[in-house]
Amino acid sequence: MENISTTFYGQKTRKTHSKAPRILLYLMFLVLMIDLMPGLGLGFGLGLSAKNLFLYLLLILIAIRIALQPSGLRLVDLDIHIPYLVLMAYAALTWAISTIFDPTYNSIRGAISFKNQLVDLYLFFFVFRYGIHRSEDYIWLLKAILVTLIISSLITLIDFFNIPDLGIIGEHKGRLEGPIGAANQYGALLAFLIPVCIGFMPRDTKRIGRYFWVTGILIMAALLVATGSRGALVAIIGGSILSVIYLRHYLNMRLVITYGTLSLILLVAVAAVVLIVYPELAQERLEKTTSGSLETASSGRLSIWRAALLVMLEWPVSFLVGYGWNAYEASGIWKSAHNEYLDRMFELGTIGLSINLYLLYVLVSRTRRLLSDSSENMRRLQIGYIFAVLIMFVDIFFVAIPDPWTVIWVITGLLFGLQSLVETNGQSAEDPTLKDSDQIENKHGLKRA
């Protein structure tokens, strides 16, 4: 059978496959990283930026490819698309109602927030999921993105410890503020990336690439401690426990206990090194945590949550339908709810929160369903992703993460693209630890479902 592939433009090539799509997607990710960096935003106003223009260009190219393909586009991720689209539709409905009936509601800010926090995230997932269609492209792009994030972590570490001072990364009250989001947001992103990198890391100890991944993971752990994000640390512990319970039929419990203990010892050692260098960070975090006041220990979160619930009690129907999209920002309670579940409840009620929770549940349930049909290396990547998502489930109880969500949905799109090969065509998803040149010959990845 002839080896035929289709590029972004729908052009057929024989025996060679265009690398343009994955390169364009990687450039898209680089633009996204620059746009997310504090002080380096590429915005033009009204929610538009170079990131959005690049994103819309890729969507146009994908649309052209779909139009030129006889088979068109097969949306095999309906369990994600449907709840996400329903969530957007309900949020849009509450925005419209607030715009019409509430004269104090800022409809423009609400629309911009709707685009940034819902529409753009969906489009990023869509582009990275459907912009490419071959396993080696998904693997190459996932590897390139993770390596880029590790390199950015290394630069962040160098700048934070002033070896030398690059003047790129800032800090607030001694806490590291990374290239993506403030301290708590960056801590949440690192907590998500660590298990994903562990899952992607080559298992062969003789490979020099393995040492690169180990070093990158240690750097991320050090930066996580430097953020001073107690929520991220609690999320790693709590999310890992949830993951072990959720995956108990797929994990070797003896190895879980062994590696869990070693990881905890290693994390304590890394934390000790960071806190010795920055003792003021340890003192400030310890004083808050051990204070006799729950208000101080929670950094004011309890007051914020209490105030939000009291406002909802003023109109009990809000527990069902919410006050409307972006209503929390206009409430005057605080600039952030520091709890994404409460934020969804406040704005979209139980209806919106339930849809959001179901959408997040699908991410892990669908991945777990494929574990028994996956190769060993692919299974490790899937398990790492499940750990990462469940860690994020816990983390967003303590902090809102608008910036890290973009990276999370990009990685989700790539992983679900890999998984779709076995779900739709029965193709194998090659060993994610192999070199790209080896992927074409390797056919032992995911078994046919």
What do you see in this structure?
This protein is mainly alpha-helical. It has one domain. The chain is built from 18 helices and six strands. The chain has helices at 20-36, 50-68, 78-101, 107-130, 135-160, 183-200, 208-227, 230-246, 253-277, 279-290, 294-297, 301-313, 318-321, 327-331, 340-369, 376-395, 402-425, 436-439, and strands spanning 4-6, 12-14, 43-45, 48-49, 170-172, 175-177. A hairpin with a 2-residue loop joins strand 3 and strand 4. Helix 9 (253-277) crosses helix 10 and helix 15 (340-369) runs antiparallel to helix 16 (376-395). The two termini are 23 Å apart.
Brief rundown of the structure:
The protein has 18 helices and 6 strands. The chain is mostly helical and 449 residues long.
